[in-house]
Design brief:
Layout (H helix, E strand, L loop, with lengths): L2 E5 L2 E3 L5 E8 L7 E7 L6 E7 L4 E3 L7 E6 L4 E6 L8 E8 L14 E2 L3 E5 L1
Parallel strand pairs: 2-11
Antiparallel strand pairs: 1-3, 3-8, 4-5, 4-9, 5-6, 7-8, 9-10, 9-11
């Protein structure tokens, strides 16, 4: 079974940094895309960043220049480095994986597998 387990969330002051990790197991597809999403209370799930097996990377406009997505293939772990955090970044953050080609990479319906989420609170 495919499992995605996020970690690294927490509470931080505005301007601070956090690094989220997503440990991936059981996902052995050579072609993939993986992404980070977030959902704040009362809001829709929003695509934050994605990376695929061809090296494509994309970010939501709201996080460009502040967030960096990366993947360590040896460790089967996806990361999201978040700098210059703002209160509006407060949300539950989810990692996601797809065995298919992602056209946008920032749309939730492109993904087959999801983690349980990790909370990020910026005050």
């Amino acid at each position: 079974d495919v499992q995605l387990v996020e970690s690294g969330g927490g509470s931080v002051q505005a301007g601070g940094s956090l690094r989220l990790s997503c440990a991936v197991s059981g996902f052995t597809y050579s072609r993939y895309c993986m992404g980070w999403f977030r959902q704040a209370p009362g809001k829709e799930r929003e695509g934050v960043a994605f990376i695929d097996s061809d090296g494509r990377i994309n970010y939501a406009d709201s996080v460009k220049g502040r967030f960096t997505i990366s993947k360590d293939n040896a460790k089967n772990t996806l990361y999201l480095q978040m700098n210059s955090l703002k209160p509006e970044d407060t949300a539950m953050y989810y990692c996601a994986a797809s065995r298919n080609y992602c056209y946008s990479g920032l749309m939730y319906y492109e993904y087959n597998y999801w983690g349980q989420g990790t909370q990020v609170t910026v005050s």
